[in-house]
Amino acid sequence: MEPVQTEDEGLSIEGLEAPDGETLGRMIREARKDKGMTLEEVARAAAIGRSTLSKIENNQTRASFDIIRRLMQALELETPQLFVQSGKSDISGRRDFTRKDQGEHQVTRTYDHELLCTELTSKRMLPYISTIKVRDVSEFDTWVRHRGEEFMFVLSGELTLYTEHYRPLQMKAGDSVYYDSGMGHGCVSTSDEDARVLWVSLDG
């Protein structure tokens, strides 16, 4: 196997890289196959080279955040879990800050995610605020699932949390829930306005 290298194409202005190349590659490859898409089709949709995508899937290069964003959009991935970075760090006393409404948006067909504190590298937790656009569980092609654990706090509106092992859970502003995110899940707004939630994902 070729040594892992930093890919020059599509480097983001933040200079941040995807953390776990093996996991990232596996998730992208599985998502591509689930949608029945070829390397060429996904690469074209994400505006990257076929060889670049192949290297990412086989952990032979490090993908920038910009490339990950484009792949998420091309594959219609419903979770920003790909942005969770490695928890391994020898640095202590770190801090990151995001002003109100100044987070980094990642829009999917069902959610509008606002990623928070994105400049801090080598972290295990991923905080983000999401607007739940979907109105019926049938709008999900499949369960949302990723490794780790997740905390959700409802900021406004009402929603139903669907999980594969439990009955649907109705929630409203002020309610919170903690669950294994490897268990299939998905949220649906049930109020007149789109529900907004604070999610904190912990890489497992």
From TrEMBL:
InterPro entries named among the record's database cross-references: Cro/C1-type_HTH, Cupin_2, Lambda_DNA-bd_dom_sf, RmlC-like_jellyroll, RmlC_Cupin_sf, TransReg_Diox_bact_type
Gene3D superfamilies: Jelly Rolls, lambda repressor-like DNA-binding domains
Annotated SUPFAM superfamilies: lambda repressor-like DNA-binding domains, RmlC-like cupins
Keyword terms of this UniProt record: DNA-binding
CDD domains found in the cross-reference section: cupin_XRE_C (cd02209), HTH_XRE (cd00093)
Domain HTH cro/C1-type: 28-82
Pfam families membership: Cupin_2, HTH_3
Name the UniProt record assigns to this protein: XRE family transcriptional regulator
Gene source species: Ruegeria marisflavi
